[in-house]
Amino acid sequence: MTSDSNLNIANTPETPKKTPKQKLLSVAKSFLIYGLAFAVIYMAINWWRQPVMPANPQLQLTDYQGQSVDLAAMSRDKPTLVYFWGTWCPVCRVTSPTIDKLAAANNYPVVTIAIKSGSVQELHSYLAEHNYRFTTINDQEGEIFADWQGQVTPSYVVLKNGEMTQGLTGIQPLWSLKLRLWLSEVF
């Protein structure tokens, strides 16, 4: 019995140990597969939750200070970013500084729509407190956002020639927004 058991052990093939290069390739492959799966799921959810341009959108608006804002005219010259947000939205506290930087750069028009964020005075106080300089429409009742079938904040729409070219939601880095605006300008 001892000789048989030694024989079985000797005949059992040993699994070869992976080299560091093979381990690295295995980890990279796993990251690639999981990253690709995440990207596909993220894009599908983003597509499902993005705002939808109404059949007859109201593109002539008035900002909270009483100034006229013509989104159709603005988007004729350059793609225009419309940012739907709220003072009550915790994620918007992360994204709004990015939108302010984009608006301050003045490369593309940026118009924000504050959803259910209180009175004109409350919105003004919030914007002043955070030193935001972007153009803001006060959508006190959420009617504009509802018209665009918005589901989540923050949401973004890129308009070109009065038509929606892109819609997205969630946290977007500055480079992503610039890239989307540039793509809308080029294509």
Low-confidence spans: pLDDT under 50, at least 5 residues?
none
The helical percent reads 40-55%
Overall pLDDT score: 91
Strand content: 15-25%
| Rg from alpha-carbon coordinates | 26 Å
Please provide the count of β strands: 7
The major beta sheet can be summarized as: 5 strands, mixed
Strand order of the largest sheet: 5-4-3-6-7
Distance between the termini: 78 Å
SS-based structural class? alpha/beta
What is the overall shape? Answer: elongated
Order of helices and strands: HHEEHEHEHEHEEH
Number of helices: 7
Main attributes?
187 residues, alpha/beta
Tell me briefly what this model is.
The chain is an alpha/beta fold.
Describe the structure.
This protein has helices at residues 2-11, 20-49, 71-77, 92-105, 120-129, 143-147, 174-186, and strands spanning 60-62, 68-70, 80-85, 110-115, 135-139, 155-160, 163-169. It is α/β, with parallel strands linked by helices. The longest helix has 30 residues, at 20-49. The strands form two sheets. Strands 5-4-3-6-7 form a five-stranded mixed β-sheet. It has a two-stranded antiparallel sheet with strand order 1-2. The N and C termini lie far apart (78 Å). Strand 6 and strand 7 form a beta hairpin. It contains seven helices and seven strands. The mean pLDDT is 91.
Please describe the topology of this protein.
Elements lengths: L1 H10 L8 H30 L10 E3 L5 E3 H7 L2 E6 L6 H14 L4 E6 L4 H10 L5 E5 L3 H5 L7 E6 L2 E7 L4 H13 L1
Parallel strand pairs: 3-4, 4-5
Antiparallel strand pairs: 1-2, 3-6, 6-7
